[in-house]
Amino acid sequence: MAVGVFNTAVIPQDLAKKSFSAMITRLMPNGSAPLFGLTALLKEETAYQIEHGFYSKTMLFPSMQLTAIAAIGDTVFNVASTTNILPGMLIRADTTNENILVTGIVSPTQVAVQRGIGSVAQAAIASTTNLWMVGNAYEESSLRPQSLIIVPQRVTNYTQIFRNTWAVSETTRATMLIAGDTAVAESKQDCAAFHAVDIEKSFFFGQRFFGTRNGQPFHTMDGVINSVTQNVPGNISTLAGTTNYTQLEAALDPVFNQVTDPKSIGERILFCGGFARRVMHQIFRLNGTYFIEDGQTSWGLQFDSFKIPRGRFTIIEHPLFNAYGQASTWAKMAVALDLSTFNSAYMTGRKTVNKEFNMDGGAAQDNGVDAVGGTLTSELTCLVKNPAADAILYNFTAGIAG
Second label for 26, Cα 20 to 30 Å away, from 41, 159, 190, 401? Predict the structure, then answer.
């Protein structure tokens, strides 16, 4: 009991109305839109126009590859490219372990060097050998070196307008039901579920488009699958008729080539269909040294988890992937997603707006229709900020030992 003015400080936890995505998280954690629900736990972003974008920067690791043999004593190397190479860099021959100092850039395909910088003596270096940059070194009182710049890459996506309507005739509204909620409540719940599922589908399967429809601008957004397909096709794997642990690890391993959170171990969510989940459990059972465990979040989301040498995966069976049966392509696929680099951005004032008609006893709306209803409208876009940290696996068929 509290004495005085009732204010927000005394509102019990979870009593206050939440955002639409937060309600999906709380009320339907294992429903058809778990990814949309999880966005409620992420930092919210705002889209200020229909084209929403961000800039992405990837750390540079300069290297070169020889295009001709470098004999003992050679001080000019022929290489495929000198991009991102500066005088003063130390490079290391991958085959001989000789450290070499770059002294000048002769041309876009030639570099001047000083040999034998270190304890490893000069040796002939074969063509196609990789030369990795291992630091830099300058003499005392040296001049200021040139700067190396990471050029940001602009990534954009379009917002997409989602609309779903519920409607009940006034006669149905007045009809008393023997079980369940009222007809209005049932229709509202169905509409909310359809709205969340439609957004969820676009998060995965959306494809960017801008055009016109009925004389008005019409735009759709890229989802996770298309973002990976367009930017890192090497992270897409179509599995063979049988898959062992080694092959599964190889398909998932590339997602950890990108460090997205230097403060914690790499972790990805693996959304999958029911058939794919059974195949993965079969793989783990037949390779008994690899441990899989089940778990549950504080709000009831069910999951399995397993580890490979470079990171951890949380498996969530996605009901949407099972929608068309266990023989479908979706049921046999899995999408590895780095949640720390995924988000959604809503247009200002367009975060799941509910507009109802004929519900408050006012003047009839919608041309005097003898019914009540409402429409949910959301305008948002999907942000996949690091597609290289994600992966798509198709065609889970059968697991074998190995």
Answer: 159
Spell out the domain ranges in the chain.
Answer: 20-54+155-394, 63-136
**Tokens 């055009």 map to which residue?**
211
The proportion of the chain whose per-residue pLDDT surpasses 90, expressed as a percent, equals: 50
The 10s digit of each residue's pLDDT in 282-318 is: 998 888 755 666 666 554 566 688 888 888 899 989 8
**Closest of 121, 87, 114 to residue 100, by C-alpha:** 114
CATH of domain 63-136: 2.40.30
Q: Does position 4 have pLDDT exceeding 80, yes or no? A: no
pTM, two decimal places: 0.75
The DSSP annotation for 177-230 comes to: PSSSS-HHHHHHHHHHHHHHHHHHHHHHH---EEEEETTEEEEE---HHHHHHH
In order of 25, 192, 195, 198, 276, the CA distances from 36 in angstroms are: 8, 12, 11, 10, 21
C-alpha–C-alpha distance, residues 196 and 373, integer Å:
18
Q: Assess whether pLDDT exceeds 80 at residue 372.
A: yes
Report how many helices (DSSP H) and strands (DSSP E) the chain contains, helices first.
Answer: 7, 22
| Torsion angles phi and psi, residue 235, rounded to 5 | -90, 10
Quick check: helix, strand or coil at residue 356? strand
- Within 10 angstroms of residue 241's Cβ, the number of other Cβ atoms is 8
Say if CB 258 and CB 311 are below 8 A apart. no
Please say if the pLDDT value at position 265 is more than 70: no
Q: Mean pLDDT throughout 11-18?
A: 45
DSSP 366: T
**Structure-token pair, residue 6:** 């009732």
Q: Contact, 184 vs 173, CB < 8 A? A: yes
Which residues are CB-contacts of 27 (< 8 A; sequence separation ≥ 6)? Answer: none
Helices 274-286 and 245-252, packing angle to 10 deg: 120
pLDDT bin (cut points 50, 70, 90) of residue 91 is very high
Q: Quote the tokens at residue 34.
A: 């778990």
| pLDDT reported for residue 16 | 41
